[in-house]
Amino acid sequence: MEIKNHFGVYGVCLQDGKLFCIEKTRGPYQHRYDLPGGSQEPGEGLIETLKREVLEETGYSLSRYSNPRMYDVMVQEEGQDFAVHHIMAFYDIALNFESSQKSISQEVHDGSNDSANVIWLNLEEITEENASPLVLKVKAELRGFPDLDMTSYKNWKVKEKKENK
C-alpha cells in the first residue's frame, strides 16, 4: 500500500471549556469539525503558515500563539489503496476577535478556503463520527490522555453531507 505524507500546522483555541473548530467543506475530513490550519506554502515558516491559515479559514488574526507540539495519524479512506500519514504541528492560539478580516463564506465560494463556518464545541460534542482525527487528538490531550503513538484510522469514511445534530 502506498503511503502519502501530509504535513500541516494547526491552531488550538480553547475558551470557557469549548474548542474553536471549523466545518470542513472538502477533503477527507469534509463535513466534519476540524482545527483551523493547513499546509505550508513554499518558503513559509511554521508561524507564517499558522497565521495565514487561521486567517483564511476563520477570518480572525492571532493575538498570541504558544506551546508547539507534534502528533501524527494514519488515515486510509474507505475503498482507497493508499493511506495518508498526516503529520501535524499544533500551537495553542488566542484569536483577535476585535478585528474580523474576511467573510468566510466568500472565501469558500472562490475556492481558496475549505472552511464553511466556525463553531465552539464542548468536548462532549466531539465524536469520531463528527470530527477529524486532529480534533480527536486535541480532545484526548485536553482530557489528560494525549496519545503520542500514531493513531490509525482504517476504512475512514468521507462524509457526503452534513448530519443534523
UniProtKB/TrEMBL annotation:
PANTHER family: ADP-RIBOSE PYROPHOSPHATASE (PTHR43736), DIHYDRONEOPTERIN TRIPHOSPHATE DIPHOSPHATASE (PTHR43736:SF1). This is MutT/nudix family protein. It comes from the Bacteria. Coiled coil: none annotated. Keywords: Hydrolase. The keyword Lyase does not apply. Belongs to the Nudix hydrolase family. Residues 4-143 form the Nudix hydrolase domain. The keyword Hydrolase applies. One of its GO terms (molecular function) is hydrolase activity. InterPro entries: NUDIX_hydrolase-like_dom_sf, NUDIX_hydrolase_CS, NUDIX_hydrolase_dom. SUPFAM superfamilies: Nudix.
